[in-house]
Each structure stands twice: as structure tokens, then as C-alpha cells.
Task: structure prediction
Amino acid sequence: MSIRSFAADLLPAKLHSTLARAPAAAESQQAEVATFAELSEKLAYLSKSDLKKVREAYKFADQAHLGQLRASGIPYITHPLAVTGLVADWKLDATALMAALMHDTIEDCGVTKPELIELFGAPTADLVDGLTKLDKLQFSTREDGQAESFRKMLLAMSRDVRVILIKLCDRLHNMRTMDAMAPAKRSRIARETIEIFAPIAHRLGLNQMYRELQDLSFRFMYPWRYAAIGKALERARGTRRDIVDRMRRDVEKSFAEARTKVTVYSREKTVFSIYRKMREKHAGFAQVNDIFGFRIVVNSLPECYLSLGTLHQMYKPVPGRFKDYIAIPKANGYQSLHTTLVNPLGTAVEFQVRTEEMHAVAEAGIAAHWMYKAGAQSGRPDEAQRLGAMWLQSLIDIQSDTHDSSEFLEHIKIDLFPEAVYVFTPKSKILALPRGATPIDFAYAIHSDVGDHCVAAKVNGEPVALRTELKSGDVVEVSTSPNARPNPSWLNSVRTGRARSKIRHFLKNLEHEESIILGEKLLTQALRNEGMAVPADDEEHAALWQSLTRWSGSRSRAELMVDIGLGRKIASIVAKRLSQLLGERGTRPGAIALTMGRFADNEAQVGQNVVEIDGSEGASVQLATCCRPIPGDEVAGYFGGEGLTVHTKDCSIGRRLRERDGERWMEVDWAEQLTRQFESAVSVLVQNTKGALAQVAQAISAAEADITHIDMGDERAAETTELKLLVSVRDRLHLADVLRTLKRASAVLRAGRIKP
Result:
């Protein structure tokens, strides 16, 4: 079924009973326009002045594409004409139609945006520019160029949704006419379509386009599977035609007796949806029972619920298979009542009940805003527009927090979820979240500040872990603390692109700030060893810093400090170059500074020469998990490329690193005032007797320590069992007290600290 014939089906005057079939590519193309005369027939809804503008845009596009051919050998102008025909089925305005006709002129014909502004105005030029890929720029890989082009298109879409509507029509026509391309290129474009464009169509409620894009992608990705399921579907269609006709007659008769005016649609699953169900259920084609179903279209909202009663009197409903998407619409604005009934043959058949306006939104989604803006009374198309705008706003939020195009595309893919759960705030506001979402996703959906400072959550009044998976109907409440901040482990449990981008943005900013401070400290110490002080970051020394950053390959002074703080550049080497540049400008080493540097190297390393650890460190300073240093241990710091890692001086792993890469080490020490407790690894050998674990827990609690993790291994318990614990302690003295208390327990045979 083409977009043109489908759009006609949406008009109330055209509603009729039909058995929908998955379209073949040839059937779809028969409805497409190939000349401007054919296109003009579709543009009867435009005024004469608008039609004249569209004709001028056609002449411009025809001239621009003169001599260009498609891969099939036909004139290229047939493609913009076909795309514009699909756009016209949604009754978009003249600006969108003009942009559709000229959507490839900047990319393929050398036309510039200023030319389009001069000839057709800024709105049309902005749409065309938003549709233009960034192929003319240089990227390190084709994937980077593709990701940046998607980013540009989606941001243009967030400003004007017509960009993505035209792009989807462009992609649909390309998919319909892709047979002339090389198989490898067909497969690549099909995969891109099913991963990006089809989910976007679904997210905007364009369900007819969503289904066709999926089917066409499946056909080009797996042609043999598509053909096999298509043949099986054709055979099943013949054998089930009688039962479909019989059920439709029974339904129409029952509604006639109930004096309810309805229109009955028969519908059929697409080839791809059948294949997906077979994969999910590990079943053969014969085991897929719900291949066909029915849609009941009524005149008003109350009749939807009255019709449900009529259906349930006809056939027995399947318990647990009723869904009310009218009271709680889907995230893309979809509204219907769903119920599954048992037909006379004993198989389950799904019925969907909706009004005419709901039917329009269910199939055309956000595009129904243009198709029905003159006559819609229920306001449902505007609801689809509002929900679409909410998602478009989320694109802007993700964009503002993401600087890498590939990461931006990753967040968008995450956000294009096909299924949703619906949860409630304590004030009964409904939020749609992807299946598998957690209270952290909920917090970020409320506001980024709520997410950044989230510390605890309650679901239905009961405290739960922040990684708990939410279910539809849950009432979620989150608690915040001004001192809390996102945990990197949250990235493993969140499901929304918004939450993921906000967490990453916060952590990157935090790492950036900490790394600058650490980098400045390290460079100060290294430059003091050369007998000089770090020059100020002011206009007087701007040329000096510019020379240094150019030498180091950094873009700015701040970036250089980050690289030093993360260990990507060695402070002593940068200091030698900086001292050389200072020497060229007449600065000589100072005796006092040189003495301070040597004293700091050889003596007590006091003051600002030593990095102090107080427990408040973030991403740029980490405690090694091999030796797990705690206050009181002699420690040293190693730069491994992702910041400073602190090891104990007797750590065997640290010693090997020092022998191999000694210049990356620096002195660190514990601060006098500590902000938290630290984890230490402890091994406890216990007798396998009743209550042994309880004795261990009681002993550690008596020593005022906490167990943060326990590992009993995978071996079956014998007479003795070794427990490996992570215990939270203040310092070495506190750990010694914990070990003494453990050894007093009757079930404990041995207790000691684990060292690598």
C-alpha cells in the first residue's frame, strides 16, 4: 500500500472494509508521480499563488538536475517529483513541497543556500539545507561523516519537523527504487533505514511509513527470508480468507443490531513483523496465530467503550490482553483500545477500536496535523504534534550535552524505543519511559538537576534500589541531596538517551575541571625543578602559551592542562619545553626556585609539591583496585593515560609499572582531613558451621566497619570456606582493629588483608 493510497484511506468519506496487504515495490511505484502534471493533480488543496511557487521550484530543480540520471538510468528529476508526491499526500504546505522538489540541489548540483534564499526565501532554503548531507567536508571515517550528517538533520528537524517528514519520504522512495544498486550498498542503506529512519517514523507516529520501511529494509537485508515468509503469507491468506470474511460479517451484523455506526477494517501483519515474532518466540510460521486482525472505527470517544462491550458479547476475550491506549496514549500519540478475542476456530484475534481522528493519528502521526488541521474537532492531531514536539525538545537537550557526533547518534538510537512503560509521579502526572527504565531515567525525565542529585527512590511507596526496573502503573518518587552527584555506574542501568547524555556530560565536566587543577599542580612542580615558575594566563604571556600549545598539539592552555592531569602528556617534558621558551624570552632559572624544586625532590615533598588524597577525588584521581590503598599506607601515583592511579609502594603490580615506566610516577600523600572511609580487601577463613557468616558480620559491625561486598567463590562448601570481603574503614589502625575483632570469633580460623 503506497502512501498515496493510504492517505486516501484515512479520509472519513473513503473509509471502507478492506484486507490490507504488504505492498510489493512495483505496486507502490504505480501510485507515484513521474511528471509535474501528475503532481499537480495532488496539489488541488493549494491556492493558485502557492501552486505557482511550487511550479517555479520544479522548473529550478529540473534545470539543476538536467543531464543527471539515477542508478536505474531514468532522469534524476523523477526522484524529487516522487518525493514531493509523497509529501503532498500529507497535505504539507507550499514551502515543504518546494523544499522536497529541491532537496538534492545543494548536495548534488552545486547550488548554494544564498541562491535559494534569494530565489525562494529563507524558510525554503533552511529546509533544503537541513536535508543536505555533509559529504563535502572531510571526516576521518565514513561513519563519522554519516553521524555528523544525522546530527545536522535531526537538529534541523528539532527546529522544523517538516525536515524529517521530507527526509522520510526521500528515504521511502529510495528504498522502493533500490533494486538497481549494488547488493552491498543496498544492504548498508537497508540496515541504516531499519536502525534509524524506521524508528524515527514510529516515534513520530507515522506507522504506515514505519511498517513499509521495515518491510523494504528486511527485503534487501535478507531477500531469501523475505521471499519465504512472503510465499507462506500468500498461502495463509487464501486459506484464512473465509474465516476473515465470516468474522467481518458477524461483527458488522452485531454492531448493526446494537445500532452503532462503525467501519470495519481487516488488517494483516507485515512480513517483517511476522519474522520478528518468529525470532522472539523461536517459532515457525504455523505457530504465529495473530497474522490478521480487525480495526473498528467509530464516530465518538464514548462509542469506543460501548463497542468494546459489543465485541466481548460476541467472542470471549483473552484474560490479560486488554490495553487502554486512549486513557494513556503511547509516547508517539497513538490512541486505541486493544482487546484479543477467541474466534470460532479457537484462535486469538486482536481487535483495535478507535475514532476517525484517532485512526488518522495512528497511521499518519504528526503528519495528521496538516491533513486534518482544517476539520479536526477532537484535537487529537494537535496532541500528536505536542508529543512529537516533546521528543524534538529532547533532541536539543541531548545535543547540548554531547559534543561527539557518534555519541549523539548512539543516544538517539537509545531514545528511539519501540515499546514504553507508563509511570506516574506522586502528583499523578504520566511519564512514558522505555521498557527497562529505572528511577534514574525517571529523575532525569523530570529535570536534569533532579537526576544529577538523585540519592534514593520509592516505587509505590516502598524504597527500592536506583537500578530497579520500572513497570507500567508504578508511582515513582525520588529523593535528592544537594551534595549528591551522578555515579559512573549509572551508565550501566539507564535506558533513555537523555539520562545517558546528562550523566556523561556531568562526568566529563567534572573530570575536565579536576584534570585542569591536577595538571596545573603537576606542571608547577615540574617547572620548579627547572628553577622557574609557571607564567600567568594573561595577555602578556598569551604568545608564550600559544607557542607551547602548538608544540604540544593541544588546542588551548586548558586542554594542555587536562592532558597533563590525565597523564596523556608528561609534565616534566612539557616543563622542559616551557623553560626553553621562557629562556628564549630572557627568563633565567631562579636559585631559590631551583633549590625548592630539588628540596621537594629529595626531602619531605611538602606543601604544593605533593598531590594529597582526601577521598573527594573524582575521575582524575583513582585508588588502584589491585592493592586498595587506605590512609596510613605509603603510596605513590602513576599516570596511565586516564588520570592518576594511586598504588601502595609495596604493591607488586605498581613495582612492575615503576620498573617499566618510571618517569610516569609522582609522589602522593594522604591529607590530614579525610572526607570519607576507604575500602580494603580482607580474606577470612571460617569453619563451615551454622551461623559462621553471622559471626563474621557481627564482628565487623562491632569494630564499627561496614561490609560493602562479599564473595564466597563458586566451589561447594567443605569443612572450611574462604570469604573475600570489601570492608569500609577509616585507616590502617581501624583495619587492624577489624582484623583483631574478627580473629576473636569462634568460627574464624584466619583473617588478613589481601595484597596483590
Notes: The chain has five domains: 3-225, 226-383, 419-495, 505-670, 678-753.
